[in-house]
Amino acid sequence: MSTSQTTTTEHHPALAQQFDSMEQQQDASTFGMWVFLLTEIMMFGGLFTAYLIYRIKYYDAFVAGSTSISVGWGFTNTLVLIGSSFTMAMAVWAAQKGFRKAQVWFLIGTMVLGAAFLGVKAKEYHDKWDECHIPGHIIGKGFNAWGGCSATDPKLGNIADEIRERDPKVPKVSAVQTAKQTEIFFSFYFAMTGLHAFHMVIGFGLLSWLLWRAYKGEFGPQYYTPVELGGLYWHFVDIVWIYLFPLLYLISRTRT
Amino acid sequence: MQLNFPIFPEQASSMAGQVDALYLFLVLITTFFSLLIAILILFFAVKYRRTPERKAEQIHGSTLLEIVWTVIPLGISMVIFVWGAVIYYHMERPPVNPLEIYGVGKQWMWKFQHPSGQREINALHVPIGRDVKVTLISQDVIHSFFVPAFRVKQDVLPNRYVFTWFKATVPGTYHLFCSQYCGTKHSGMVGEVVAMTPEDYSTWLASGKAEGSLASLGEKAFQQYGCTTCHRPDSGARGPNLEGVYGRPIRLTDNRVVLADDNYIRESILEPNAKVVSGFQSIMPTFRGVVSEDEIIAITEYLKHLSPQQANPLNNRTSPTEIRDSEVPNIQQQNEQQPQQQQTPQGTRPANPGKKP
Amino acid sequence: MSIDKPVMPEKHYLNDNYGIRSWLLTKDHKRIAILYLFSITVFFFIGGLFAGLIRLHLLTPNGELFQADTYNRLFTMHGVNMIFFFLIPSVPAVIGNFLIPIMIGTKDLAFPKINLLSWYLYIGGATFSLITLLNGGVDTGWTFYAPLSSGYVKSPVIVMAVGILIVGFSSIFTGLNFIVTVHRMRAPGMTWGRLPLFVWANYAASLIMILGTPVIAITLILLALERGFHIGIFDPKLGGDPVLFQHMFWFYSHPAVYIMILPGMGVISEIVTCFSRKRVFGYSFIAFSSIAIAVFGFVVWAHHMFVAGISVYSALVFSLLSYAVAIPSAVKVFNWTATMYKGSVKMDTPMLYAMAFIGLFTIGGLTGLFLAALGLDIHIHDTYFVVAHFHYVMVGGMVTAYLGGLHFWWPKMTGRMYPEAPAKLAALITFIGFNLTFFPQFILGYMGMPRRYWAYPPEFQVLNVLSSAGASVLAVGFILPLFYFLWSLKYGEVAGDNPWQATGLEWETTSPPPTHNFHHIPVVTKDPYAYGEDEEVPVVH
Description:
heterotrimer, B: alpha+beta, Cytochrome Bc1 Complex, Chain D, domain 2, 12 strands, elongated, C: mainly alpha, Cytochrome C Oxidase, Chain A, 15 helices
């Protein structure tokens, strides 16, 4: 592990005083970001583990829950986020090359796609609000997945009905009980996508800051570490979604 | 202030002596090694104390010593592990033909029910010389059933039966503590376990005003809640006949095989669609919020009395995977011979009780 | 060695800059360490006050001093404040922050601003803790078991959970900083094999910090969600599983105890070598033991759950692994003892604390073997035996090591020596008070007295009185250093660069060190603990 020896006579303006060289700074900063992402993996990992445990315990309810969220929007969001990872990677490349305009546009592109993702999520959450699928009684009209959500439209958010439509042999009592158990599915749905969205919002803040600095021309071949770190963070958030999407939307979506 | 203070609880159960023996062994090991280290460091501190002439000898280490003092503690640890595991295994194995008592813990008291119908609060009378199995459940938070004199402890969980057992050996009155912090009056959730000679125990049983045995209370509840509407022995019954069901392996609609034990019965009452017997529809409504824990216990006891094998699970096996196909009663086959009718359930209970009282 | 009286350096990190802003916006790891020193000392005495009140209350069996509700809040807040706001930060955030860059020969940690952020996160979490206190405190026990904490108590659980969450991130960032620093910022010649064992110990603890703390974060988030929105994650009435909470909680909280003890063990390695003037016996074994403890520490969590309703087979596995994790600690104890053999031992205050640590940690660790034995744990789980065990390792171990380290490096941090006679007296009082407080609790536990009991059967009173008497002595032992340390800042003897004649890069710079730690970055050529080479006549203080 080579650490640099004495400092060079000329300092890059971005060289922090505790480091001996830009190389050491970039090395340490990147390493630090990887360690941080490792802690994030542990946090999401704990949440995913709890989700999987309950999926096994309440299999039917989780199947019903998965089926009731829109795979179309989820897939759209997946494409949007992968696209934003691409623009982010391009931004890192542009920063590395010193192409100032390209950096700025790619960062803006990433933020636009990120905003699109959050917009779609907001729509999905709104749908859940309308369908009375928000767990608990504090937010929204109170959880009701078995028909009491709307006075005028008994089918709105009615997972019990959906279950019976898919399989008419299921008796009403049984369907209602399964629909009640979907509350825990939705608890995890909101916890997982909520934590993810929270990380995206933070990512937004990071991207804004990077955008400002890129606009000012701070990044070039000698120093583009912040963009690289931002890229790592953004890719991580993307990967979390790549796990979330199948776990929540896809597995055993409908069981024949 | 009591001036005579003992340092050991009484040994009042069949396992207490074994637990104490392991404890004493560990006390000896701890004393030996603690004294060894303490004496060594004090000795070295004095013998090699700094003087102007003393020059420390720079020793890097000794792989041999490292191996020795890794292997020896490891060996001792393994001895302790095995010893503890053996005692634990004996303590966890359900006893054969025990006296069964049910216990319910709630903030902040203990309720016990004897099969003969006796109910006790914060007290538990048991005979000595007989295995006693206590099946426990909580009505609210996690509690723990702890009798120091018997060296017995078991956390009592909500929504799930657990059990513990002991064989009292010395008549006397012993502390019962709740040992899992459960809120304000946690330290008030204490009671007495009274171990009595078999004669005294029979006398005590006879003396209480019995409302009837636990099983008969269960039978009453079974009828009161309309269970007999569907669970009948005749061929047109909408629900499986419960005679002989307790303790037997049951095949479910998804081909899994489970054991019909206390937890299964309780789950079937509270969440009937979780495990539906093969050949039947999942039409049973839930009785959550309607039937109390005490009543579920009574109903379970009643079902045990319907079983030809008195409350004894098949060969003491507890894991369903060990049950062979040939042992599973073929209810499916029996029912294929009768036409199934689609009917909505009638009875005195609404389809969606669901509301808590 | 020096015949001239040492003088304070003219400019050093304490007087380099004046004003509150220069402290609150500092990036200097040494100043941040001092900020932590003040903060955790405050919480140590808050937690200690609660402990004192608990012991006072337990003098009588019938719960005469406080109401049950108040008592429950006292022991909960004692636990929460001591563990999260004192023990976990103590050695890493104070001594580690101060020393690690100097010990490896660099100017600062890898990320100084994140270091300052860590302190602010600590203060943020601490603020939530104080808010909780002002609202009566929480009464769930520091373990927050569900469904009690999510659905049954009325106290400010969510506020407390948020506080712990925030201070958890303080811990994560400190760990992250240490790991990157040790990997990437070592001076030329400072190979892994030349690192002081204090650095190895903090490195291992940092691994645990970054891997374990996020899990308690998510557990507390889920608990808060359940409590706030009445959804069923752990509450069985709403479909949840209370045992899952225990698994998730202990998955962090068991490794957490190794976060607490490993840095303390690092301190002991430094003190024992210096005060025996000997290289450490079995350097690689001690270094790798630290890593082994960190790794094994992650696979034993369910030994807190043997009677909680886990299967017999899991219990067997976790019991077996718990014995495995004990072995590396034993190896360390033997190595330290062997280090004293044929050394040149001086029983100054730091050495007194180190020797106390070795003895008390041995007892505490061995009583862990009792708890890991399945058949025995059934009897002693959730009794005062457990309370005695963890206080032996946490107080007899960790706090002792912390105090030893404070005394050892006090001259380096402040430029002044503490007064030796009062310090030795305090060490002795602490040792006596500690044993008198906690040894009777082993007996109480085996007798069957459960934990967290506001009132108890009268036959337990004698032992409780002994314990409370010990606590009053222990309190004196802990308060004394406060006074003489403060006194020493103005009147203590000026220390000079290396008052202990110790090896280690920190002793090659001034006391206190300059802001940038070294006037010239050293190049390392010697092994650590190279006592005995070019040995001159040792100075008798």
